[in-house]
Amino acid sequence: xxxxxxxxxxxxxxxxxxxxxxxxxxxxxxxxxxxxxxxxxxxxxxxxxxxxxxxxxxxxxxxxxxxxxxxxxxxxxxxxxxxxxxxxxxxxxxxxxxxxxxxxxxxxxxxxxxxxxxxxxxxxxxxxxxxxxxxxxxxxxxxxxxxxxxxxxxxxxxxxxxxxxxxxxxxxxxxxxxxxxxxxxxxxxxxxxxxxxxxxxxxxxxxxxxxxxxxxxxxxxxxxxxxxxxxxxxxxxxxxxxxxxxxxxxxxxxxxxxxxxxxxxxxxxxxxxxxxxxxxxxxxxxxxxxxxxxxxxxxxxxxxxxxxxxxxxxxxxxxxxxxxxxxxxxxxxxxxxxxxxxxxxxxxxxxxxxxxxxxxxxxxxxxxxxxxxxxxxxxxxxxxxxxxxxxxxxxxxxxxxxxxxxxxxxxxxxxxxxxxxxxxxxxxxxxxxxxxxxxxxxxxxxxxxxxxxx
Length: 454
What we know:
The protein is α/β, with parallel strands linked by helices. The chain is built from 15 helices and eleven strands.
């Protein structure tokens, strides 16, 4: 079977891709609640002949496996939605259900395309009697930055050799590097309650400790790497002002280019919290919820992904689709639209119609965080994106949600499936390609331990 014939298998699965995109978009489920989405993929993959492997501690995580022997190739799928981003397929902000969840990051497309790619690769392995194993990974809680970290903690990625990942975006491109490493931690402070007017000297305010911690962290910002980000929210405990609050808390996110920097900054944040306790004679408990890594660079793997991105057929768009994309861009500032079209070289159109230049990831760095980075620390992982919304639209917006429910998003998903299937084809066919990728991975690999505690 040639790669072109494999692409034809992907194209024959277009009805399934469209059905899956729409199924998830119509029934969005936020992180931790993806029961129906996970079961949908379990069902269609089981019917295709995959063996479903579940993890008792993670009810919405699984992998579906077909084949035998090596290499074992993973294709990563996600399906969690975002709270509050319910949206109709329209060019104006209009919720399907006010306050409900929606696929503003396009994970309905992400899960659908990855499943279709896995099915196409399965049929290739089957028809060619090709040695090797394909796994589709159903990954929950990506928007919580925790799903794959937990899956790693429970050894669900054991036995895999390489991973293929993608994300809906505004451009057809590859990422050699990307994602900010991130960690989440909760701080709970405990003091002593008292009447704030009658006996204030008796009280020890946990809320004072929270406020002093936040002041200290704000001074800390000057003395961390310039690319680090520290975010927080607070919980006053719900006490009225005439009570010295005995309980209060804060929730911190720390982001930086590398997980080693995140750990270092988080330790310094802990010391600030301890200082706040000393100043207020309170006590404190710190719990690290999770931490996720950046994408570990692998230029050899990115080169392979880029070649497949160029080989695969890109979508063409109807006048109606281009008009819809233009209307979505009309809801954004003219400067934003102009800059995005220039960055992605759209030639004046609202959608990027060609493959981006090889180093586009350097001009347009991926500064969000994702638990997919952890997978790249376990095995070589490539990352591609395809056009699923207009050039000027950002993920986590109602505009992205509208496009993710449209035929533009569906075409982007099928395009990604072609590319991922092609990458897998090359990995199965060429031990030389695999070894080159693995050699670079071994050179850059560092000790990895999931930053997660039950």
